[in-house]
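name: query_chain
kind: protein
chains: 1
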Amino acid sequence: MPLAAHEPQAFLSNGWFSLVEALREEIDPPVPEKVRDITINVHITDGPDGHIDARMTAGRFLPGADEAALTRMSMPFDVAKKMFAEGDDQMAMQAMVQGDIKLEGDLSVLMRLQQGGAPTPEAEALQARIREFTV
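structure:
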């Protein structure tokens, strides 16, 4: 049964991560083979509750860091929200150029992410649903 409309969830809250994962399972966007084995830790600063560690792994955005990840991104909360909740890829590139996104470790991983291709209709549907409930 499809998930109905949901109460607004604060970006990066436990409820937000849970709802994103439930929607991801429902919509089931395909993960390109080139990015299935990629894990990038994301350190988010200046959030309402302080700093938050998360990770991008196999097409998912999950709470907590992965000690085995070879790449780490660090960015302010507002940049992370635009990037992960609003899907604003253009802003992400601008933030990287301006130095708002800091990178450490194996940067070739980012090139592999770009080779993953354009978002599928399922990935776009998931992003639209995330935008609907994120505050």
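note: The radius of gyration is 14 Å.
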